[in-house]
């Protein structure tokens, strides 16, 4: 019997309950995967609390990404075989489970040299970094970037990859320990926002030139300061809201601050086509297998302890990547 974390009513971590569920057989185009590791991401908190509406309503099984082994093929699936090690970052929810049915077109094979835990921990975060650095804004030698929450899971991947691309990489973090962690993962400069004004420090670091692009998953707390860190015609990329949603604002502020650009991208828009998903995964697996980007799983929780994992995530007690183990 399959077990899954289910949410019957939006709320805090206690809203998640481990239950037995009936899975059934894979439909045409689907595969049944036995999970070996499940990725934990802040977007899971948004769905649990109701900040994001679940596509199919309640009850819901959270989680977008996992790794595991193909156990059964649905009709018409020829790209995979039973026994294949696979990973996914699916648009639909349902990863917080011991087994899952998922469309074969959302699944990629895990290459040798990448562990199941690494794959589960990096698919959503790593492919997010891929589209941010290579497609939302093409980061290259000479680019100056600012990234908030540098010691988080996405941040540690981002710092390594951005440095590899030749950028000057500036980050922010909330403690001395997190500052050091980010510096060890590619960031040239890390600003401790609990004791420093990040806008002033960015101006000092760049000699007043400021940044070409700011990547911000924090939201409300950093929005205005982020705009002040951009050079004229710079790009503000908002891709999360861990401190709350950015309030409505008059777009005239973008003109006042130097004809700035703003975008709100999502991984599922960038990887909506199979060829884009494959290319994104290929680029990610390439930098990881070559050791350019190191994926260190810093926290592990049992699937049954998902509530505690969420408490620690929201309290900012976690660093880097975290997995749930069935």
From TrEMBL:
Tree of life domain: Bacteria
Q: Which residues form the Enoyl reductase (ER) domain?
A: 11-324
**GO cellular component terms attached to this protein's record:** cytosol
Q: Which Gene3D superfamilies match?
A: Medium-chain alcohol dehydrogenases, catalytic domain, NAD(P)-binding Rossmann-like Domain
Give this protein's Gene Ontology molecular function annotations: mRNA 3'-UTR AU-rich region binding; NADPH binding; quinone reductase (NADPH) activity
UniProt keyword terms in alphabetical order: NADP, Oxidoreductase
- Known InterPro entries for this protein? ADH-like_C, ADH-like_N, ER, GroES-like_sf, NAD(P)-bd_dom_sf, QOR-like
PANTHER family, alphabetized:
QUINONE OXIDOREDUCTASE PIG3-RELATED, QUINONE OXIDOREDUCTASE-RELATED
Q: What is this protein called?
A: Quinone oxidoreductase
